[in-house]
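dude i think i finally got it to work??
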Amino acid sequence: MTRIGLLSDTHSYLDPKLFDHFNDCDEIWHAGDVGAMTVVDELRAFRPLRVVCGNIDQESSDLQAHQRFTLEGLDIWITHIGGTPPKYNPIVRPNLQITPPDIFICGHSHILKVTRDPGLNNLLFINPGAAGKTGFHLVRTAIRFTLDTGRISDMQVIELGKK
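look at this
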């Protein structure tokens, strides 16, 4: 069993409340638009971190455009600009159609959304919204959930307050 804390679009602002909300998490995942690398440093010092590069970030060995991996028997793909079902970003759409993951995570839109896509093997699409203070969103959000032997459970939306 692995407990995940998921956030995106911090834009250099890391809300201290996230550390309380993610205290019982085994890993933190960040779906891009990190901003200052101090955000990455603080998260890595707190828990193991999987992070992708957003459109405001510089791609590097620390911040790659995509991460695809298997955890708890689930195929997971994290990227920043992924679109939304069924209108996926044209860059990721061909790979999604050929080999859809079990879970597809992206950020960028600042719009919290969790839904299944029956057109792509019922993959679970997750966008945690935006945890930072930059952008058009009104409420800052993140997500917590559990992965356990091929199952996703205990998903919770975390509202961090107004931006």
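The two ends are 33 Å apart (CA to CA).
im so relieved honestly
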